[in-house]
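Running low. Got one?
___
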Amino acid sequence: MPFDSSSRILITGGTGSFGKAFIAETLKCYPKIERLVVYSRDELKQWELQQHYPERDFPQLRFFIGDVRNQERLRRALAGIDTVVHAAALKQVPAAEYNPIEFINTNVMGAENVVQACLDTDVRRVVALSTDKAAAPINLYGATKLCSDKLFIAANNIKGKRDLAFSVVRYGNVMGSRGSVIPFFLEKAKTGVLPITDPEMTRFNISLSEGVAMVLWALENSLGGELFVPKIPSYRITDVAEAIGPSCEKPITGIRPGEKIHEEMITASDSFTTVDLGAYYAILPSDGRVLQRYQEAGISSTAVPTGFAYNSGSNPEFLSVEQLRELIREHVHPAFQPA
């Protein structure tokens, strides 16, 4: 169990899709935690969230306006906090190509600010969210998240003898999250046209609840230095279009700048330090210290084969059209019917 009645948690980007799901699940499963701080920069989104969680019913919830670009503000927010989930990021791929320095300031320098603020306070556990686009990145967003991953993993080298662990969770497209393809297609289906970037395109798929469960698992089980990757299914973009709008036109528009046909979460170059933990893979630091700690702790792990890669196009598990429809009803729109 990652939390108890004395736990004091802060989530950056707490008003985003993941943040709201994390808050809901944490308050449901651990209602007696001492404090849960929502750290984000948008006062309107915080106000809207406060209407859903009134103070009289959720006294453990705190709302703290701040930007991860501001290390001093972060340090103030982290006073008395023992657990940090870092979900704040700019993430739209085309926007990153057009506004690169803004993404660098938030995703890279913001990550470093979180690391430094955690080192300067009494935080004990940190899990940062990553993305499949950080593996062998070809766009700026992916490159900034790869930098962020490296900063959090490397932070374990400078913590000294403190009881402090930094880990990263990397997963694929979150079903129903803002800006993702399923909400986009659900809206476009009303027009009778679903634009397909490339008929060969595939993506990994994970639900918000699965993403939250993975972060909670990482908070409880990580030793520090791991980059965790879940074993999740893929989908074909053409199957998503068929699931949502079988009667819609589906013109091919071509891929956007910075897009891949298939996404990766583990590259062949990562295979030398990747282990299989059962439900998850873990990419470990190359110095072998985390693997040694796994062995000393009796944690079961199996090295993946040399050259192993985890790619959405070669993934052995793909979602069918009907499975996609059921998942849309379960996680996105309960009353969904194909157009």
Observations:
- Residues 100-119 form the longest helix (20 residues).
- The two ends are 43 Å apart (CA to CA).
- Residues 171 and 211 are 8 Å apart (CA to CA).
